[in-house]
Amino acid sequence: MKKIKLSLILVVVLVIASALSPFGAVAQGTEGKSSVLFNDNDPLLWDAQVYASNMGVSLDEAIRRFQLQDIAGDLDAELSMKEAETFAGLWLEHTPEFRLVVQFTRNAEETIKPYISKELADIVEVRTAKVSLLELQKAQDDVISSVSGLDIPVESGINVFENRVELYVVDRARFDEAVQEGKVQLPDNVVVITVEEMGKLDADIYGGLPLSSCTSGFSVRQTNDPGYKGITTAGHCPDSLSYNGTNLTFMAQLYSGSYDIQWHRAPGFTVTNKIRWWSDGSTRDITATKHRNNQVIGGYVCKYGKTTHYTCGYISDKNLCPSSVPNCGATFIRVDNTAGYNDLSSGGDSGGPWFLTNTAYGTHVGSPADDPNDAVYMAVNYIGGLGVSVMTSP
Description:
CATH class of the largest domain: Mainly Beta
Number of helices: 6
Oligomer: single chain
Order of helices and strands: HEEHHEEHEHEEHEEEEEEEEEEEEEEEEE
Radius of gyration: 21 Å
């Protein structure tokens, strides 16, 4: 399919298509929420059209919001570094109106002024929170540290909307007993939530590429000599994998702390900077990566997996500590299933790519403890721990 670039002519055609269809340029489809009527191959247009249909906004407005999402992500990273003492997190809200909420523990209005660009000026809402994000992260680290060694499975994350740490447990009676005995210290800003089971790994069948198990993620290149190329998948997937009947060469794995990633060489194949993102085999180029620090809560992201295919959702937590990862670091990203899809994570999706347009966001891990229809991924920058970098050019 020939690459079609965003141009004035294309925009005019899309506007006409929108006028002719009750769903704009998008109609209900069999995969995920919707499928595009206009047959284009521009990733930005595709994601923007799906978002526009979901939110009931114009294509121009959807593209504008994607641009603002990037700006908000950069602001998140900057405030986390420069205003850590009082910064309590930020997030995007998409309904009933599109806005950016920023929280500080004190002097909120004065603190934010130097950081607000003209693009964000009309959408920023400043609030006051009780506890800074840095304090929440410390509380999360402390409670996970006190639980470690007790053989009590837990999962944790930071709910920036409610300004608290959430701890998910299955055996509540045993956990409460440990608290009463002083084995676990619970700060005031930590809330314990009982769940039926811990988060599940999605590591049993094929995903984005026809691997023998799990889903292939991103193409990578070794950063040192000899500079081999290969593909990634989740670290909890089997080390022995094959593609189209050919065994891949296992190179390295990291599966603890902030990592759930491995990579393989693919002898006999040409490795390119593409991802499969639709069940008919359609691909798109990956030309950029988005560091965890620059991914914004409330941001819209999409993924492809063998089982649930192309689905999208909204980032709700950048500090999830999934119980499935040994000695987990509170750096994993949670995506809420609030964009109208049936399920964001199921068996076989592990290792699949999370992305928006042509930008790599992360590697699919599984689902969180409290909602199996939501998703968890490892931010893309942690791939560098393997001594490789995501390919953003051939």
